[in-house]
Amino acid sequence: MTAPPNEYDVCSSEGPVLGGPLVDVHGHFGRSAATGYSSGAADLLQAMDRHGIATTLVMPQPTADRGTADRVHAEITEAVAGHPGRLYGIVNLDPRLPEAEYRRAADHLLARAGFVAVKIHTAGFAVAPDDPVCDKVFRAAADHDVPVMVHTGLGGPHTLPQRVVEPARRYGPRPVVLCHAGFGAFCAEAIEVAVSTANVHLEPSWCPAFSVRQMVRRLGAHRVMFGSDHIENIPVELAKLDAVGLTPAERRLVCADTATSVFGLPPSTLTTTRPEAAA
């Protein structure tokens, strides 16, 4: 007797099944000053095709050099325009910039089609989200009605998930996304922050599989979303989802629908790109 299809196979390391698009909310262009990791449009799009990712949200690596930041944001702008529905942009500027300079650059990008969020890279810029210098980031996001993404869990006390609580409550009900959801060591703290703060969502790249399971059980899959951070980490993050044992409805939310809702992505642009379908 032929075994029935695996009902949990909504997304896997071989790509999502037909009808199950995959959205990656955490991609990068540029070179990381911390690790030397580098990526761009060609490498990312190739990886998306290989792993069946329909859409990726992309931000620059953090840099205090305005020339580099402007150049990478321009690369993202060009890539988003050239691949509508496949790539979306995230603004990642130094929150320590003077208010007028930050707002001028952020407003310019957020006014363009395809930019859907702003990022506070707490580790890259050595700043906490509850520091007053980050108020301008939350104000810019509020003015453009987009989510704020915050690096959490690696890089010092300013990256702890609890530092998000006060500004997230002021910013609510708009979504705040904890990138890396505490980065393994502080996953439990990230979960408690999200439990106590209704507009906080979790992106658990680099977290253990059992922590991802706890996130979904405590918060619901509508508060958790897939992210990879690095191209080479995509199959690892997909394998973690395979290990978690989510229901089909939960996996659809984590793989795509949570991100579609949080970032206001049009569902019609989410198409499945399984490698075997393109062969």
Automatic annotation (TrEMBL):
Pfam families: Amidohydro_2
Signal peptide positions on this chain: none
Protein name: Amidohydrolase-related domain-containing protein
Alphabetical keyword list: Lyase
Gene3D superfamilies in the cross-refs: Metal-dependent hydrolases
PANTHER family documented for this protein: 2-AMINO-3-CARBOXYLMUCONATE-6-SEMIALDEHYDE DECARBOXYLASE
Domain Amidohydrolase-related: 36-265
InterPro entries (UniProt xref): ACMSD (IPR032465), Amidohydro-rel (IPR006680), Metal_Hydrolase (IPR032466)
GO molecular function, one term: carboxy-lyase activity
